[in-house]
C-alpha cells in the first residue's frame, strides 16, 4: 500500500488529503479513434513491442511505483514518459489527476507487464473531483513537453476525447466502478515525432471550460546499464 498526499482542488476550494492506494492499474490501448490507436501500436511495434491480444488492456503494477516526487531514476537510456489522466478512488469519491506512465521501452519488447513494473509512475499532487468535469470531459486537453538534449519540445498534445472516457473505461474494467483505494492510468496519445527518451518530462491536463489545469513534472536520472 502507498499513501499519496494530494491536494483536492474543487470549485468550492482546496484541501489536503492523504489517500491510501492499495491497487494500481495501468490501462493500455484505450483509444477511441481506432486509426490513432493503430498509430500508437505501430510506433511501439517499431520498437519491438508485440501487439496487444485485446483492447483495452489492464496491467497491474505495484503501488510502490506511484510517486509525487520531482525526479525518478531509471536503468539506462531506453525509457520514456506518457501523459495520462489518472483516476483515483477514495472512499465514495472519484478524483481525476494527471501522471506519466513512464515505461522502459527495452523491457517492453520482452513483455509489457514487465516494462510497466520497471519504472516509477509520477503523478501530480493536484486532483479534481470527477463530478466537476464529467459533463464536459471531452473538452479537456492533454499536453506534454520533454526536455531532450537540452531542448524543451512539445511531445504530446490533443483532446482527452482521444481516449475512452472514465465511464466507458471502468465499464470494461469492473462493471462501471473503481474500488476505493484504486488508482488507474487511463491511456495516452501518440508521441509527436515518435517515442524517445528525455532528461525531463512535463505533462498537464487543461480544462478550457473552467479555465484551470493540473500538472506533473519530473526529472529523469539514467543509471548505468552494465548488463
What would you say this structure looks like, in words?
- This protein has 227 residues and is mainly beta.
- It has a single domain (2-223), classed as Fumarylacetoacetase-like, C-terminal domain (Fumarylacetoacetate hydrolase, domain 2), CATH 3.90.850.
- It has helices spanning 34-45, 105-108, 112-118, 166-174, and strands at 2-10, 13-21, 23-28, 57-61, 66-67, 71-75, 79-80, 83-90, 93-100, 103-104, 121-122, 126-129, 141-148, 151-159, 182-185, 200-207, 212-223.
- It has an eight-stranded mixed β-sheet, sandwiched between helices.
- It is globular and about 50 Å long.
- The mean pLDDT is 93.
Keywords, separated by commas or semicolons:
227 residues; mainly beta; Fumarylacetoacetate hydrolase, domain 2; five-stranded mixed sheet; 4 helices
Structurally, how many domains make up the residues?
Answer: 1
What is the 3D shape?
globular
Please give the number of β-strands.
17
Biggest β-sheet: strands ordered side by side in the sheet: 2-1-12-9-8-15-3-4
Mean pLDDT: 93
Derived structural class: mainly beta
Gyration radius from CA atoms, angstroms: 16 Å
Gross CATH architecture: Alpha-Beta Complex
How many alpha or pi helices? 4
**What's the CATH topology label?**
Fumarylacetoacetate hydrolase, domain 2
| H and E string | EEEHEEEEEEEHHEEEEHEEE
Organism: Amorphus orientalis
GO molecular function: catalytic activity
Pfam families: DUF2848
Protein name: DUF2848 domain-containing protein
Summarize the structure.
This protein is mostly beta strands and 227 residues long. It is 14% helix and 45% strand. This is DUF2848 domain-containing protein.
Amino acid at each position: 500500500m502507498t499513501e499519496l498526499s494530494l491536494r483536492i482542488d474543487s470549485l468550492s476550494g482546496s484541501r489536503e488529503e492523504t489517500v491510501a492506494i492499495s491497487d494500481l492499474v495501468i490501462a493500455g490501448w484505450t483509444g477511441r479513434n481506432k486509426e490513432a490507436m493503430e498509430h500508437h501500436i505501430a510506433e511501439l511495434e517499431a520498437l519491438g513491442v508485440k501487439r496487444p491480444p485485446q483492447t483495452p488492456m489492464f496491467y497491474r503494477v505495484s503501488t510502490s511505483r506511484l510517486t509525487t516526487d520531482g525526479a525518478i531514476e531509471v536503468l539506462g537510456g531506453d525509457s520514456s514518459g506518457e501523459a495520462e489522466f489518472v483516476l483515483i478512488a477514495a472512499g465514495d469519491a472519484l478524483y481525476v489527476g494527471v501522471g506519466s506512465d513512464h515505461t522502459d521501452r527495452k523491457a517492453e519488447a520482452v513483455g509489457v507487464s514487465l516494462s510497466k513494473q520497471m519504472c516509477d509512475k509520477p503523478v501530480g499532487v493536484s486532483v479534481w473531483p470527477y463530478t466537476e468535469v464529467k459533463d464536459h470531459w471531452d473538452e479537456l486537453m492533454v499536453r506534454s513537453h520533454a526536455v531532450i538534449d537540452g531542448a524543451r519540445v512539445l511531445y504530446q498534445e490533443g483532446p482527452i476525447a482521444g481516449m475512452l472516457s472514465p465511464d466507458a473505461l471502468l465499464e470494461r474494467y469492473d462493471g462501471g466502478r473503481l474500488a476505493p483505494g484504486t488508482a488507474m492510468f487511463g491511456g495516452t496519445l501518440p508521441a509527436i515525432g515518435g517515442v524517445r527518451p528525455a532528461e525531463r518530462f512535463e505533462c498537464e491536463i487543461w480544462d478550457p471550460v473552467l479555465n484551470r489545469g493540473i500538472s506533473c513534472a519530473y526529472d529523469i536520472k539514467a543509471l548505468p546499464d552494465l548488463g
